[in-house]
Structures are given as structure tokens and as C-alpha cells.
Amino acid sequence: MLIHNWFTQSLTHKLMALFFAVFFCAVCGLTYFAYTSSRNAMFQEFKIRGRTLAKAIASQSRTDYQEQDVEGLTSLFQSLGEGEDVVAILAYLPSKVLWIEFSGIQLTPEDLTFPELGDVWERDLVLTEGYRISAFGGAVTDASIPARRDSSVSAQPLGWVRIFLDRSALEQRLNELIHQTLVTSMLTLLFGGGLFIFLLRQSLQVIAPLTDATKKVAEGDLHATVPVSSRDELGELAKCFNSMTEQLLHTTVSKNYVDNVIRSMTDLLIVLNPDGTIRSVNHAALTLLGYEEQELLDQDATLLFPPHDNPLGGETYQNMLRQGSIHQMATTYLAKDGRTFPIFWSAAVMRGEAGHIEGIACVAKDMTVLKQEEEQIRLQGTALESAANAVMIMNRIGRITWVNPSFTSLTGYASEDVIGQNIRNLNAEQRDQPFYQNQWQTIMRGKVWHGESTNRKKDGTLYTEEETITPVRDRNGEISHFVSIKQDVTKRKQAVQTIQDAHQKLKALDQLRSQFFADISHELRTPLTVIRGEAEVTLRGKDKPISEYRNTLERIVQLSSQMNKLVGDILFLARSESGTLQMDLKPTPLAPLLEDVRRETNILAQSRNMAVTCEGLSHDVLMQGDTERLKQLFMILTDNAVKYGRKDGMIVIRLETMDREAHITVADNGLGIPETDLPHVVKRAYRVWRGRPSAVGGAGLGLPIAKWIAEAHHGTISIASILHRGTTVTVRFPLDRPVTSQSGNEADWASRTSQRT
Amino acid sequence: MTRPSSTRSRRLEALAVALFLWSFPTLAQADPLAVIVHKSNPNTSLSTTAIASMYRGETLHWSAGDRIKLVNREIAAEERKTFYLRVLNAKPDQVFYRQGTPVPVQSVIERSDEAVVRFVGTIEGAIGYVSLSTLKEMNDSQIRIILIVDNP
After folding, report:
1. Which of A160, A554, A576, A590 has the smallest C-beta neighbourhood within 10 Å, fewest atoms?
2. In what order do the strands lie in the sheet with A661-668?
3. How far apart, in whole angstroms, are the C-alpha atoms of residue A323 and residue A718?
């Protein structure tokens, strides 16, 4: 097996084996030929010599025989038998009895027996003692007796001679010849073989690289080259191979290359035979359709299409055969597992050189992803179209390319009005330059801009919009478009503003209330402290005169009544705020009411020596109102006038009607109110002259109560004052409006209070 | 005392053995050999060495220039055994070669002492060896003894 492989797998080995077979046969043949011819020649020569020697002895010994000269014969034997291979010469008498034995070796009587072989003979013998010889013999005839034709009577010979030649020398020489020939042959074989192998290797060394390169080319690698190492036919072959691969590489496309192209195609390639069966399928098609290649080859191609949508059936196919190709039709492939894939399908008829149809190459592109993307885009487009927010797309230079219907409803501009317009032209008037620059710089830096701006609609109305502009980048990362999403926030802005205002007012009110409670607490504690102090001082120590107790008790009563009044005011305010204060409305004449007020004020004013006068009471004015409350209102005003009036001053109460309104003014010529305090005097517990002696009294509740009462009668109070000159308080009542029960709550009260301030 | 008697008997034994040993070679002794040549041969006496050199092929010619013709007995002959042993110091079947050559030293083989004597008496350059007693019986006048080889 090994030897088989060794032979079959290498040309060199094959050639070597061939050479050795031929060379060996040749050398062996030559050796054999040389040996046999040499041996034959040697034998021939040997025998000729033996015969010649025998004949020579026979002829030379004739005389000696005739004369029976033993000495002469012995001398003759001695001289002729000096050849190196002559071992014995025997002379026989005519009676065939041994006459002379001339020998160097031992001969037995058997060896010496006359052989009776005729006149001349030769034969090979092995002597008794083991010598290998050739025996030559001849008769010694008398030449003087003429030879007779008659063969029946032959002349009696004079005797016989025999000569023994040693064959061992000859055989030794033959052996030597064999040895020499063999050695020469072996040397020739070795030298010739070595030389041959050397030359063979030199000549064939291009074959192994050539084989490797051919293998590579067969595998498709056309870059394989062979080193050119000689200028013989093999070198020429290597050169031709290199140029051939180069040509192949440059001018043609290898099958492997085409296969590679087809294998790496992402499109589906299916080649059909003219009869509609599948000839070859590429890898992408197998992957998509889920078939093995063997399952499709030689199958009818209709199995690749759904039954209702087969472009290979009917007219389409005939058209294709006529025209040579189908350009891009949308159809579907049916996979092995029953799924269908939308594809763009094109087919081309391959024709041979003779014009006959060789096959049909079908290329298909899987459109599944594309279809999905299309659907996705359609959905997204629909979403944008139907979005409640206004969406606007503009390009890099600010030109509007698309708007959705909400944009139209927000701005009043139809899409055809704005598409193609530059955004700067659309609302430039509304935007100041820095705002616009900031927005543009932000989005050009690739950042999202978010902000609010006020724009004008097509019809000219203003609206506030909240806008988000997002830059859109293309595949290269460059900004290509901007998407602007807008939202009308006008109403929201207004609501926010309202809430903010209300918040401010509530905060102020809360502050007022805190202040009020702080002040009221102080006002309530002060008289209590005084009462307690008066009582404690009086009770301390020894008995005091009764007048002192009386004084103290009077003081206490006075303080208690102050407190009573204060608590009454607070209760009034609390009720007024909680809406539980009941108004007893009825037609009330103002003149008698004011006269009562004047009379009661006068009592108060006497202590300060002030004069109280009434004016305009001559004509009576009738209004709907609660008499008690109205009286309380005016008493507050006159009480203030007494408290803050100048000693020995005067207080004037005047009633006037003007434009269906009753105007009642209470004027004094007292301290007046500083201009800065004037707006605050109607606040609860606000007192202008906080630094004044406590004798003035008052908790700052009067004017708020007065104000509330006036407003409960739909009236107003206004205060005009000049510092150190006097204050005039004017109360106005509408005369034609019916007075309703006031059911104010906190918010209502607060809102009306805030409106006054 | 038995010693003297035993000593005497031993001496007698030794004497008997000595006599036996002495008498055996005397009985076994063969005839001496006579190396003979033709009576016309100028040599009257030759040394053993000279004769051996002739039979070994070292000397081919007589001093006068004639070829020496060796006469041998057949290998089985007693004379040849004695001659080879005594003169050539070799076995009787030893083959000698002429000095420096593969040519065997050849000789005329005679099958009897009488034949040897006749041959030597006939051939002038011949040399041979025969039993001395036989030679004396023959009393041939054509030969001359040039060496007597004792056969102990």
C-alpha cells in the first residue's frame, strides 16, 4: 500500500522507478551478455587450445612413437606441458596400454584407463581426486601411410596421447569475470542512478510548485505564481502558467469569483431552466425561504409562489419570454413554512450564443422591512397630521416645508400660505432681535429650544404660543430640518395670571388678618390689665376713703364699657364676615336720623368743647335701610371726628342729594390724616395716630365697620383729609336701589375690599 | 623385609620394556631409498637439499643445461611416502608449483621400482628414487646412485 502510494503520488518517484527498472534491466542484460560472450569465448579458446595442444603433441610425438624414444617424448611433454593449466599428459601404446604418465597431480588407474572414443576426442571430466578437467585426446598416426578412402580399414595408429587441462583456472577466471562485471554494473547503476536522480530533481523541481499553484488556481486563487528556475520546457511551462494566471486574473472572472458574488448577494437569486424547474438558488434565497438546496433543485418553480400570485403562469411569463425580461414587479414568495414575503421581482431570460433559451435568472428583493417601514412612516404621518398640537417642519434655512392641520387652526394660516415661506417673514414683527437670535443659535447648535412667544394670527389677533423646536439630523449628522411643535397657551396664561393675582390678594389679606388679630389682642388686653391694676392697687393696703373706691369702680366701669364696645365691634365684624348679620331694611328718613346723631355727638363733644352742627336737613331724604345700622355708621364717623378733632373745634354734618344719590359728609377741622395713611384707614384695626395717648381710645375698627355698613346699603365711603387742617368723610347712598340683605362671604368681602384699595 | 625381592623384579620389568622398545624400530625399519640418475650424468653425489629443490620445481635444469626429468612413484607407493617425508618434508599428495607460476611441477609417474630404474636408465636427464634393495637385486649398470636416503 505504502509502495503504491509512493508510486502514485509523485511523478518523480514514478520516473525514478521507471528509470531504475529500465536501467537495471539494461545493465543486467548487458552484464549477462558480456558475461556469456566472454565465457563462451573463453571456453572456445580453452577448447581450441586443448585441441591444438592435443593435435600438436600427437603430431610432434609421431617420431618418438616410431622410434619408441621415451626421452624425446618426455622432453616433448615437458616443453608442451608448461602451460599453466596443463595438469597431465598421457601417452598410450598402440595396445592402449599406458606408456608414459607425465603428471603434476595424482591420477588413479580409472583416470588412466583409455577412453576408447575414436581418433580425436574431447570431454569434460571430474577426476577421482576431485579435479575438474577437460580431457583432449588424439591418435598418433603415421603420416607416411597414405590415408585410405576406405573407411572400413583404417590405419593402425602409432599410439594415443591424452592431455588434461585444468578447468578450475578457467572457472576461477570466469568467477573473477562475473565479479568484475557485477561490480562494474553496480557502480554503473549507482553512479547512473545518482546522476539521474540529481538531473531528475533539477528538472522536475518546478513541478511541485506548479502543482501547488494549479491547485490554488483550481480553488479560485488566481494570485498563485510559480518560481521559474530553469530555461527548459518545464521552465517555459512555469512561465506560461504565470502569465496564464495573470491573464486570467486580469481579463476574466473566475467561477469562484462569480460564485462568491452570488453567495454574498443579499438579493434572492433563483435561476430557472427553460421548462420552469429550478436550476440553482443562492444562499440568501435559501435563508429567506427556509429550504435546503436539495429540496428546490429540479423542482417546479411554482412552489415558490402563492397559487393566486404566480408570475410564471400565464401571460406574464409569455410576455417575459418575448421581451427578454421583466422589470421590477411586486409579488410575493411563499416560504417553506407557509409564510409569504412581499418582494420586488425581476427576471431576465438568458440566451445562448445560438439564441436558444438557456435559463431564466430571477432576482428578488425582500420588501418586508421596507413595507413595514412604509407602514410605520404612514402611521407616523397620520399621527402628525392628527396631532392636537401644531407641527411645523422647516429646513435648515428656516423655510417651511410642511405644516399639519392643527397649525392652520392655531395660526389661521392655511398650509399653502406658509409652505415655502421663511419663518422670519411669518412673525418677524413680533419678535425682538435678541430673542430670535437666541432661538436660532440654540437650534443651530443642535439643541432643543423651548420657549414661549406671542404671535399674531392671520386675522390679526394675538395669541401666546409655547413652542418646542427640535433639530433633525441627516445620516451624516448634519442638521437638515427643524421640527417645531406649537401649542396655544393664551387661555392658560390668562388663568395663570388670574390665579397669581388671587394668590397675591390672599397673601395680603392673610397679612392683614394677622395684623388685625395682633392689634385686637393688644386692645383687649390693655383695658383688662388696667382694670386689674386699678383693682389691685385699690385693694392693697389700709382702708381708703370711699371716694377712692368709687373712682376706681367708675374707672373700671368705663373700661368695661370700652371693652364691651370693642367686643361688640368685633362681633359685628365677625358676623358681617360670616354673613349672619341681619339687616332690618325699611324706608328710613335720613334727616331725623342725622339729627339724633348730632344730638348724641353733641353730648360727647361737650367734654372737648366742640360744636356740632347739621346742614341740609331741611329736605328729607328717604332711603331703604336699617335705621340702627345707619345710625351706627354715622355715630362712628362723628365719634372719630370728636376723637381726632381739635379742641374747641367744630363738626359739620351735611346731607345733600345729587344724581339720585344721597351724600352725607362729616367734616372736622382736626388733626387730619397723613396722605400716606389715607388709603389704609378703612382697614380693620388700622390706626393713624398710634403714638397718641390712650385716652383717645379706639381700636381702629370703626371705619371698617362703617365701610361695611355703607356697602351693605350699596353705598361708598370716601375720605378726604389735609394734615392738621381737618378731615371730611363722605358717604354716598343710591336712592333708587332697593337695599338687600347683605350675605357677604370672605372672598366677596375680600374682593370688594381689594377693589377699594 | 620383602624390599630386596620387589626391587629386583622391577628391574627385570624395566629391562624387558627397554628391549621391546629397542627391538620395535629395528623391526619396523624399511629399506633405504636410493636416488638414482643416468650413468652418464656428470654428478656423482647430490645433497638432499639439491634433490628437494628439483622436486619442488625450483631447479629445472642440470648444471650442464639439460632439463631435469623427474620420475615419481604413484602416491600410494611406500617409496614415494618415504621420499616425500624424508627429502621434501611433505605429504605424498602434495602438489608443487613452479616457483612464481601456477604451473604444477610435472613428473613422469612410474608404477614400480623396476620401471623407475628402466626409465632412469634410459633417459639421460632423468632422476628418480627406488628402494635400495630392489636396486641391488636388479643390478642395473645404466644408473648411478647419487644419494642414499636412510629410512629409519
Report:
1. A554
2. A611-615, A650-658, A661-668, A726-734, A716-722
3. 104
Q: Strand A462-473's sheet: what is its strand order?
A: A400-403, A390-395, A479-488, A462-473, A449-456
With an 8 Å Cβ cutoff, the interface of chain B facing chain A consists of 67, 69, 74-75, 93, 95-96, 101-110, 119, 122-126
- What is the distance in angstroms between the Cα of B75 and the nearest Cα belonging to chain A? 7
What does each C-alpha distance from A496 to A75, A470, A489, A500, A503 come to in angstroms?
172, 27, 10, 6, 10
Nearest CB to A78 within list B67, B109, B124: B67
Considering only alpha carbons, which residue of chain A is nearest residue B111?
A101
Of B111 and A149, the structure prediction assigns the larger pLDDT to B111
- What pLDDT sits at residue A541? 75
pLDDT band at A499 (very low <50, low <70, confident <90, very high): very high
Q: In A, which residues are within 8 Å of B107 by CB distance?
A: 102-104
Greatest distance between any 2 Cα atoms in chain B:
81
Other C-beta atoms lying within 10 Å of the C-beta of residue A175: 11
B-chain residues near A103 (CB < 8 A) = 106-107, 109
**Are A102 and B122 in contact (CB < 8 Å)?**
no
Instruction: Tell if the CB–CB gap between A104 and B107 is shorter than 8 Å.
Output: yes
Calculate the average pLDDT of chain A.
81
Of B95, B108, B123, the CB nearest to A105: B95
The reply to whether CATH 3.40.50.920 applies to domain A387-484 is no
Tens of pLDDT along A661-710?
888 888 888 878 887 777 777 666 566 655 444 445 566 678 888 888 88
pLDDT confidence of B1, banded at 50, 70, 90? very low
CATH 1.10.8.80 fits B31-149, yes or no: no
Q: Which fold has domain A489-576?
A: Helix Hairpins (1.10.287)
Cell numbers at residue B99, please? 616457483
Q: Where in chain A are the domains?
A: 12-143+156-175, 207-255, 265-372, 387-484, 489-576, 582-741
Q: Assess whether pLDDT exceeds 70 at residue B13.
A: yes
The CA distance from B38 to the nearest CA of chain A, in Å, is 12
pLDDT digits (tens, 9 = 90+) for A548-572: 888 888 888 888 888 888 888 888 8
Which residue out of A77, A101, A112, A164 would a mutagenesis test of the B interface target, given it has the greatest number of B Cβ atoms within 10 Å?
A101
Query: What is the average per-residue pLDDT within A305-325?
Result: 77
Q: Mark out the alpha helices in A327-432 (DSSP H runs).
A: 368-385, 405-411, 415-418, 423-427
Domain A12-143+156-175 belongs to what topology? Beta-Lactamase (3.30.450)
Residues from chain A that touch B109, judged by Cβ atoms under 8 A, are: 101-103, 107
Rounded to an integer, the average pLDDT of B91-109 is: 84
- Residue ranges covered by each domain of chain B: 1-28, 31-149
pLDDT of residue A756 exceeding 50, the answer is no
Contact B108 A101 (CB under 8 A): yes
Residue that has been written with the C-alpha cell 360670616 in this structure: A578
CATH architecture for the domain at A582-741? 2-Layer Sandwich (3.30)
* Inter-chain contacts counted by CB atoms under 8 A, chains A and B: 58
- Is 3.30.70.1620 the CATH classification of the domain at A265-372? no
Is B106–A83 a contact, with Cβ atoms under 8 angstroms apart?
Answer: no
Please list every residue in chain A whose beta carbon sits closer than 8 Å to the beta carbon of residue B122: 70-71
Cβ-Cβ contacts under 8 Å, A168 against chain B: none
CB spacing of A74 vs B108 below 8 angstroms = yes
What is the predicted pLDDT for the residue at A152?
45
Residue A739 and residue A623 in contact, taking contact as beta carbons nearer than 8 Å: yes
Cβ atoms of residues A706 and A636 within 8 Å: yes
Instruction: Quick: pLDDT tens for A144-197.
Output: 655 444 444 456 788 888 888 888 878 888 888 888 888 988 898 889 888 988
